[in-house]
Design a protein that fits this description.
mainly alpha
């Protein structure tokens, strides 16, 4: 984890402490959960989801070319020249 420093209003700090006490959690954990929620709501995708999507996409498409793995650079150049 990376240590960071934030500034809260007095009201924010008091509210977080109260919520943390009720949930038997730390203020730091509440802040991490809030940041995770904001990232998800902003369209950010966590690494586990990226991995799942990449695995699901692997092998789903066909180029029609039998030499794509050996000639990928040439095919890429041709695609950009179009």
């Amino acid at each position: 984890m990376i240590r960071t420093q934030i500034q809260l209003t007095e009201e924010q700090a008091q509210a977080l402490k109260a919520i943390a006490a009720v949930r038997q959690s730390s203020v730091a954990e509440l802040i991490r959960q809030s940041v995770d929620h904001l990232i998800r709501q902003s369209g950010g995708i966590d690494m586990a989801e990226r991995r799942r999507r990449a695995i699901a996409a692997a092998g789903r498409f066909r180029s029609g070319q039998s030499t794509i793995s050996a000639e990928h650079d040439r095919y890429l150049v041709e695609a950009y020249q179009r």
